[in-house]
Amino acid sequence: MPLIATDKIVKDLEKAGALAMRVPPEGGYEGRYQLRLKNAGYEILFITARGLGDVNSYLTDVHGVRPSHLGKTEIRTYFIPPAIQFRLNALPAKSKGLVVWLIEGKYLSKEELETLSQIPDRDPRVKIVIETGSDREVTWQPLKQAVAA
């Protein structure tokens, strides 16, 4: 697919706010779309959906993390800032916004996908792309439409 045709992802992402993407299982093809988003002025935050826990808390709220307990030390909870807000504060002034690119999105439940589709409505600078499955070629649709199906 020529690179000129990949500008469509920027327009579709700005229009929908969140996209559900299907990519070939061997990978590599989605890199050209990430490059187009970077060239359009977006910063990209790569996250895997496996082991993410509470999606809303991890991305938008301060949340506690407990490292594994080794027996002789006291149990501690460390509070980590929200991933999205932390990255938004560090964006360059000329940046359009932040794209949260989630791989392995097929492991997320319907409720978690629904929560992710609502994040761009709360903050228009944040866009979401979730790799929800595999296909022979790279295809995408609005995440709200994919959740409803």
TrEMBL record:
InterPro entries per the UniProt record, alphabetical: NAD(P)H-quinone_OxRdtase_su_N
Compartments it resides in: Cellular thylakoid membrane
Assigned EC number: 7.1.1.-
Enzyme class label: translocase
A GO-annotated cellular component: plasma membrane-derived thylakoid membrane
Swiss-Prot/TrEMBL keywords: Membrane, NAD, NADP, Plastoquinone, Quinone, Thylakoid, Translocase, Transport
Lineage: superkingdom: Bacteria
Predominant cellular place of this UniProt entry's protein: membrane
Gene Ontology terms for molecular function: oxidoreductase activity, acting on NAD(P)H, quinone or similar compound as acceptor; quinone binding
Entry similarity comment: Belongs to the complex I NdhN subunit family.
Subunit structure: NDH-1 can be composed of about 15 different subunits; different subcomplexes with different compositions have been identified which probably have different functions.
PANTHER family attached to this UniProt entry: NAD(P)H-QUINONE OXIDOREDUCTASE SUBUNIT N, CHLOROPLASTIC
Biological role stated in the UniProt entry: NDH-1 shuttles electrons from an unknown electron donor, via FMN and iron-sulfur (Fe-S) centers, to quinones in the respiratory and/or the photosynthetic chain. The immediate electron acceptor for the enzyme in this species is believed to be plastoquinone. Couples the redox reaction to proton translocation, and thus conserves the redox energy in a proton gradient. Cyanobacterial NDH-1 also plays a role in inorganic carbon-concentration.
HAMAP family xref list: NDH1_NDH1N
Protein name: NAD(P)H-quinone oxidoreductase subunit N
Species name: Pseudanabaena catenata USMAC16
